[in-house]
Amino acid sequence: MRFVYVLSTILLLPATSNTSASTKTTTMTTAAKLYGKDLSEYDDVDVDDLLAQLSPEEINILAKEVDPDDSFMPPSQRCSYECDKDPTGPLNRKKLIDHINKQALETPDIPELKPYVPGTVRGKKWIPPPQDNQKEKEADEQIAIDLGDEYEQALSAASQEEIIDLAAILGFHSMMNQDQYHASLLNSGQPVGLGWDGITKASQPKVFPMEPPNNTDVDETIKQVHDDDHKLIDLNWNNIKNISDEKFIQLFEALEINTHLEALSLTNVGLTDKTALRLADVIEKNSTLRVLNVETNFISPSVIVRLIKALLKTKSIEEFRCSNQRSQVLGNKIEMEITQLVEQNPTLLRLGLHLEFNDARHRVAAHLQRNIDRIRRADPLERAKTVAIGAGAGNFSVLPDDALKKRT
């Protein structure tokens, strides 16, 4: 009897005690009672005291009867089902799936009340409801917009070019083609034959001539570098195909004793880690090279770190480019190593390398800007050697000695 009283009291208690008087409405003519008392008398009952009077067996029965309906509780605690069977053994997922599949195959299908006959339509066929023509409906419903006498007079007297300019200002790009839109932005004449009553067609792309191939003689330039030719200041091997590793090794060996070459560009020449490591050894011994470009090759991130570390030996290279390599993503560890090496280099002014993390990118940009500011504050001779083109921490390039002499 005590348990039934507790269960009835818990089930009839309100969900919250802060109930406004305006929500307490009832349609009952007589007050509901429980065990001879009005339900309002149970509002102040302490549930903890009631639960303390129950035994563990009665609490389990109460838990099965009362659903907490709490989404934050796991389903195993919200469900009233309890299994009292002991486990037969450890869980074997494969055997369980095989048993489920076997049981599904052995279970007979539910017989159909009406047998299937090919070509016979069973039940009612769905017929879509009739729809009115939307285009005709929109044409009939015309919305009249009162713009005022002043605006209507201005639009009625406007020319075709003025209406196109107005559409461009309002952002109605879909009402005109690209030629009309750009002509309105540039305040130039509209294309002939492409007005509102003309035929809108796509703009023909401009044809640019193909870039001529790089006709640099590899063997001849290697000989010039080896002979330390004072006329060879800028060496460009970009986009030359099928250069063997032996040719690269010969160039790098000649670069060790060269004292006039200042710019070396090896873009898209198939440079690998083997030859790039040899180049890193050469950079540590050469003190005249100022610009080095090894973009679009097959250099791994660890070798890129080795190349940037080699710049600290002689501290003569002011511009180094090595983006678009075999691995597009360097990783946080590699980028932090590159950042620390760049911050130790007082002469590097431009770094052509994509850094993904903001911390590394901002630190590198700030250090390059400090190097540039220090050179700007230096003596006029040092400022003449490095000429800044553009603006920002990364938009700088280095000119050869011939151009510097002309500028000075």
Concise structural overview:
The protein is mainly α and 408 residues long. It is built from 17 helices and seven strands.
Q: Indicate the radius of gyration in whole angstroms.
A: 42 Å
3D shape: extended
Adjacency order of strands in the biggest sheet: 3-4-5-6-7
Total number of beta strands:
7
**Approximate helicity band:** 40-55%
Mean pLDDT: 77
Explain the overall architecture.
The strands form 2 sheets. This protein has a 5-stranded parallel sheet, with no helix packed on it. With 408 residues, the chain is mainly alpha-helical. Helix 8 (160-170) packs across helix 9, helix 12 (273-283) runs parallel beside helix 13 (301-314) and helix 14 (332-343) runs parallel beside helix 15. The relative contact order is 0.04. Strand 1 and strand 2 form a beta hairpin. The protein has 17 helices and 7 strands.
Question: Helices, strands, pairings?
Answer:
Blueprint: H1 2-12, E1 33-34, E2 37-38, H2 47-52, H3 56-65, H4 75-78, H5 93-106, H6 134-140, H7 149-156, H8 160-170, H9 178-185, H10 218-226, E3 234-236, H11 245-256, E4 263-265, H12 273-283, E5 291-293, H13 301-314, E6 319-321, H14 332-343, E7 350-352, H15 358-376, H16 380-385, H17 401-407
Parallel strand pairs: 3-4, 4-5, 5-6, 6-7
Antiparallel strand pairs: 1-2
Helix pairs in contact: 8-9, 10-11, 11-12, 12-13, 13-14, 14-15
